[in-house]
Amino acid sequence: MKEFSTKQIDIFEILSKTISEGIVIVNEKQKIEVSNEAADKMFGYSTGELIGQNLNILIPHQYKKRHPVEVQQYMGSEKSRLMGHGRDLFGLKKNGESFPVEASLNPFKIEEDHYVLALVSDISLRKQHEEEILRLNSKLGQLVNERTEELRLIIRDLKKEISKRKQAESKIKYSLQKERELGELRTKFLSLVSHEFKTPLSVILSSATLVGKYTSGEQQDKRDKHLNTIKLQIKTLDNILNDFLSIERLNAGKDTYKREYFPLSRVINNVIYDANMLSKEGQIINYPKNIDNIVLFFDENILKLSLTNLINNAIKYSAKNSIIDIKVTKDKDKLKIDVIDKGIGIPEEEQKFIFDPYFRAENALFQKGTGIGLNIVQGHLKNLNSSLSFQSKEGEGSTFTIAIPLIKNNKE
Considering the entire predicted model, what is its pTM? Predict the structure, then answer.
């Protein structure tokens, strides 16, 4: 193998001094033929100290085994290339310290001998910058994650606060609505009390005045007539007061119930007997069939109250010479009592309000009543696990249905 001539070396020295990268030229035996000043300083050697050394002296220990094979494979190639192909490359200084490098290989030939010129750059500063950028990016990512989490928590707390405010607003609106409804109920109540009490009291006053005028014995029948009128009006007032007290107890949850065995026919008989005393001219109340053997385990007074209210309403809102039917049906699980009339019926658009306290349908405003009877009946039946429903058509009549579940204590 021929060595570089003095002239060649002089030319190389001139060129290498103008290049900032380290230049190392190795021969086929991987011996260092030439190194410039930049390469000597980069690897920590004095001028000329690397000449004649094996290339492995510049290779860290972990790469020494693989590197000579790669150099030998590349030797004689005619193509320049960057070393590493994406891998991190490291050089080894004289003091044993490894440092990151970037190297490009340039093969060439002098006569029959092959050489490789390596341009080597110390990229320690660039790596530091890259690592600093990575560290800063990581820190930035961490800060972004932290701020994102903080923002998520803030949004979560805001949503909770908004939800609480909406709930508070909803409660306030509900309270205001209830207060308005209560005010309307109070107005209706005062109006009803004024109207419903005023008429019976006027009748009582008038009858009492007339009774005082009938002083002779032969006028006893007239006195009796007005005394009966007074009794009837007092009973009317008593019923009104009982309705008001009943709805108050229902709203306060103070009602207690007494379930016991009783024949259904007894309640039906009593209710229809009393209703006939109030019926209009020519009105007929049809007695239900096949009820003599039915015995219920229920609150008898509540059933009597409920049927009385429904039948009295049928009488009130039906014309003279009309028929009111009472029907009882019984299946495996339920007993149903229907009160059917052919009266004025309930306007369709007002049917949804029919169980509201103090409600009076438009076509019933001129009829006597407090508008709380159906509300009371529905409340009592609901408390006894029963129900009150209806079907109605204006001008054709109504059917109100009491449904009582048959529990094991009910029997025939």
Answer: 0.48
